């Protein structure tokens, strides 16, 4: 006996949409989980990874109880937000999905659409965490995540994707350059100001403790982006293939441009710098992936590899605000600047054929004679920035003054890191050898010799390489 499939179901489309959603989910867990764990100091590896893991779980619960319908359901506040209600009944999960693009019926069930949109919401708040690493209270983070998804993310999603004011005026955001990256970059920067800085020593010396782990996370991000942008036509269409190709092309160009700039100005290529260039390429092509031609993707890649590099490595050193705000991983540059760059350029390079393939009524960008599109793209970016400045501040203020939960950990907790916060450390075997785990007896001379028979002055651990990066320049050392 086999289950009966409804006439509207396309097995291929449903399979691709679920696969694309899983690829996007893997960008958060394990992608950003391991990237965050590797890019921070050893004492913050567990806490940083746990912040990402917690957010992924919390967002899903919020999303099915009321978040999805706020972003993609019937209108509650015209132009801004949908009616909050749950997506929990089996009837609702099995019914045919309605695409947010042009109100088209999908060839897969609503459950698939809800999960696909969830992984986008989840990675947005996980990206925001990159600005808070190394000092935010985990209890404050637990409160922040559901509030920010509720009052910030859903409004951006409805406004641009769910039929809101920006959607109605033709603002193009193919897969989240504004909804995801500009919002997370803005919220990260504003939230970092509210939380306050890391310890002075940590900010001046925050060398990534495991660059190979960072590269593993970066690889998961890059390949996972095939689902990020390839899944947004909501069908296994030619436009999905074009989006995947353009995504990888822009990302490769951006990585190369960033690396070349590092070599020119810092005299050596930087692995962390190349990862930053990869991320800015992925971010900048996201609002444009399926509506620009390959040559447009190359131009976007050149700009995303250079403009965020300039703001991170040159301008951030000249303007006091970047010294006052401790944005740990520089999400302002890699997500806000890169997202605005891509959103602006799609207003120029969007093709009429690409927009039609994505079911947009917009006739394309300036190259198609529609120069007004640039203005609407800027308006969309300013709306997302303004909304997040206000609501991130309100949420942080609520946590601090109403909930009475400190946003920043105490100096004593910041000195100890993971062990003080979770009673767990990332690398227990090495720490036991060094006798640095509280409550664990140090090995005697015979045990120490057995564990490390070759331990001599010549094999002692070299001093840690220090940098002044603090998330404000691209390289691990220059």
TrEMBL record:
PROSITE patterns: AMMONIUM_TRANSP. One of its GO terms (molecular function) is ammonium channel activity. It comes from the Eukaryota. Residues 15-427 form the Ammonium transporter AmtB-like domain. It is found in: Cell membrane; Membrane. Keywords: Ammonia transport, Membrane, Transmembrane, Transmembrane helix, Transport. Residues 437-478 are annotated as: Disordered. It is a multi-pass membrane protein. InterPro entries: Ammonium/urea_transptr (IPR029020), Ammonium_transpt (IPR001905), Ammonium_transpt_CS (IPR018047), NH4_transpt_AmtB-like_dom (IPR024041), RhesusRHD (IPR002229). The chain crosses the membrane at residues 15-37, 44-66, 114-134, 141-166, 178-196, 208-225, 245-266, 278-302, 378-399. One of its GO terms (cellular component) is plasma membrane. Its main location: membrane. Belongs to the ammonia transporter channel (TC 1.A.11.2) family. This is Ammonium transporter. It comes from Rhizodiscina lignyota.
């Amino acid at each position: 006996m086999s289950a009966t499939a409804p006439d509207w179901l396309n097995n291929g489309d449903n399979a691709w949409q679920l696969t694309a959603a899983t690829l996007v989910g893997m960008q958060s867990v394990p992608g950003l989980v391991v990237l965050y764990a590797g890019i921070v100091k050893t004492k913050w590896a567990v806490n940083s990874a746990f912040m990402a893991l917690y957010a992924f779980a919390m967002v899903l619960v919020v999303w099915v109880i009321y978040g999805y319908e706020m972003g993609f359901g019937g209108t509650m506040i015209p132009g801004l937000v949908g009616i909050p209600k749950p997506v929990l009944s089996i009837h609702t999960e099995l019914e045919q999905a309605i695409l947010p693009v042009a109100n088209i019926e999908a060839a897969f069930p609503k459950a698939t659409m809800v999960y696909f949109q969830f992984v986008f919401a989840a990675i947005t708040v996980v990206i925001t965490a990159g600005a808070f690493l190394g000092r935010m209270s985990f209890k404050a983070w637990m409160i922040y995540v559901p509030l920010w998804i509720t009052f910030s993310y859903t409004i951006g999603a409805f406004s641009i994707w769910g039929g809101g004011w920006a959607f109605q005026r033709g603002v193009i955001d193919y897969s989240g350059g504004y909804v995801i990256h500009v919002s997370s970059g803005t919220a990260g920067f504003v939230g970092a100001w509210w939380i306050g800085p890391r310890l002075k020593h940590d900010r001046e010396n925050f060398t990534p403790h495991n660059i190979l782990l960072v590269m593993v996370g970066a690889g998961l991000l890059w390949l996972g982006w095939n689902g990020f942008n390839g899944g947004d036509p909501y069908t296994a269409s030619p436009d999905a293939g074009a989006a995947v190709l353009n995504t990888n092309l822009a990302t490769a160009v951006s990585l190369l441009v960033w690396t070349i700039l590092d070599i020119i100005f810092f005299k050596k290529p930087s692995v962390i710098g190349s990862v930053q260039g990869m991320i800015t390429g992925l971010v900048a092509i996201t609002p444009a992936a399926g509506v620009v031609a390959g040559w447009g993707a190359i131009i976007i890649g050149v700009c995303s590899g250079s403009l965020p590099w300039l703001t991170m490595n040159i301008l951030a050193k000249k303007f006091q605000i970047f010294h006052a705000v401790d944005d740990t991983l520089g999400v302002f540059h890699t997500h806000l600047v890169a997202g605005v760059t891509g959103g602006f350029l799609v207003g120029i390079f969007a093709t009429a054929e690409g927009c039609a393939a994505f079911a947009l009524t917009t006739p394309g960008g300036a190259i198609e004679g529609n120069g007004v599109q640039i203005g609407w793209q800027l308006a969309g970016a300013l709306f997302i920035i303004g909304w997040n400045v206000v609501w991130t501040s309100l949420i942080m203020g609520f946590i601090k003054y109403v909930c009475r939960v400190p946003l920043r950990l105490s100096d004593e907790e910041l000195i100890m890191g993971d062990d003080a916060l979770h009673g767990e450390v990332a690398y227990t075997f090495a720490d036991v050898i060094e006798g640095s785990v509280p409550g664990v007896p140090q090995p005697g001379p015979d045990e120490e010799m057995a564990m490390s028979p070759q331990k001599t002055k010549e094999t002692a651990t070299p001093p840690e390489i220090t940098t002044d990066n603090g998330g404000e320049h691209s390289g691990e050392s220059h």
